[in-house]
Design brief:
Length: 378
């Protein structure tokens, strides 16, 4: 701030600069729908305490009183629900960097509870009652235990008495020590992608900008994940039983920057072809191939179908898969997005070899990763 803003400029001075005059909730909904996403999580309040709705508990530090003078949460929730099938979720930070009530409680080693009683908990009840999110993404425990936040009391209300009790899903960030231990699904850490199967549902929450969760004016092209890298993140995550939550940082005037739009729409194009290997799948008995690197598996038990998603097109014309065991006269192999069956040869207990079609770049079903549909394999 000292380098880019006038002397004496404080964090609070950013409030009026956040104008959102170009924010178009319908356009955002269109972009998010085009991405192929099944749910969206809006940051309703981050660690600085500024709420994107006119909270009664954040006087003069919210988007209705300062800056946009609009209820941005309501606008996006309405557009998402009116024009898409996405599930609408809200992120909410428990603690706040600068709030004197939180700082007072912290100075007392959280033996006092002024901040959660007067600020954080009332906000949580407020957003649930007002916007009825289907995902509640909690964050920022401020090194305080769940007892300080009364997380179990709030969650008991959320799951038993709230208007979203039958639909809501929550994560694992509800107090010091709860992460990766307690929650509807685990996040474990930012950008968590273990590469192996977990016994509990989890989410890889990561950023398209490799270095930031927000918008940066000084980014370089190399700071952004390519679509090939994002597809790899998605495939690895889903193969290991997780969901992928890709973060984008909007601009101060309410736009989704063009490179974020491009990445989201590219992901949608990929999912348009390969979505059956992602949506509604479960982890298979092995997550990635034992012979060929860059091959990840998903599974649909009811259809008895295994999907082998390979990230590198084999220039040899054959793809060796070490994990699937074929059944003579029954196993069938298809390339999703390509007509016809593919020829294969059994390698016995060592897998199979698949002959991939010789295609020009224009003939490929997609450009950044391909899927074999394997029926009746062990």
């Amino acid at each position: 701030m000292e380098t880019n803003y006038p002397p004496g400029f404080s964090y609070e001075d950013f409030g009026p600069l956040f104008t959102a005059e170009s924010f178009d909730a319908n356009q955002w909904a269109d972009i998010l729908k085009a991405s192929g996403a099944k749910y969206v999580v809006l940051t309703s309040k981050h660690h600085e305490g500024f709420t994107l709705w006119g909270s009664r508990y954040s006087w003069n530090w919210n988007a209705v009183n300062v800056g946009p003078k609009r209820d941005l949460v309501a606008e996006l929730a309405t557009s998402i629900r009116n024009s898409t099938e996405l599930h609408f979720g809200l992120y909410h930070s428990l603690f706040e960097w600068f709030n004197p009530l939180f700082l007072y409680d912290a100075s007392n080693v959280f033996t006092t509870r002024q901040f959660p009683t007067a600020k954080s908990l009332p906000e949580l009840y407020e957003i649930v009652m007002k916007y009825q999110p289907e995902i509640l993404w909690s964050d920022g425990d401020g090194n305080a235990p769940d007892t300080y936040w009364n997380s179990t009391g709030f969650l008991a209300w959320l799951y038993n008495d709230s208007p979203v009790r039958d639909t809501v899903v929550t994560n694992d960030r509800w107090g010091l020590g709860s992460i990766c231990k307690h929650g509807g699904y685990y996040t474990c850490s930012d950008r968590y992608n273990p590469g192996y199967l977990l016994p509990h549902k989890w989410e890889n929450c990561m950023t398209i900008d490799k270095q930031s969760w927000g918008y940066r004016r000084n980014t370089r092209l190399s700071d952004y994940f390519t679509i090939e890298e994002l597809v790899k993140q998605l495939v690895e995550t889903v193969s290991c039983g997780g969901n992928l939550l890709m973060n984008i940082g909007p601009t101060h005037d309410g736009r989704i920057d063009l490179i974020f739009q491009e990445r989201l729409r590219q992901m949608g194009v990929w999912l348009e072809v390969n979505g059956e290997a992602i949506y509604g799948t479960k982890p298979w008995r092995t997550q990635n191939d034992t012979v060929t690197p860059g091959v990840w598996y998903t599974f649909k038990p009811k259809e008895d179908t295994v999907y082998a998603i390979f990230l590198n097109w084999p220039i040899s014309g054959t793809l060796i898969l070490g994990a699937p065991k074929t059944i003579v006269g029954e196993t069938q192999v298809k390339l999703i997005g390509y007509e016809g069956q593919l020829k294969w040869v059994s390698l016995g207990e060592e897998g199979m070899t698949v002959a991939v079609p010789q295609l020009t770049p224009d003939q490929l079903p997609c450009q950044w990763g391909w899927t074999l549909q394997l029926t009746t394999v062990n």
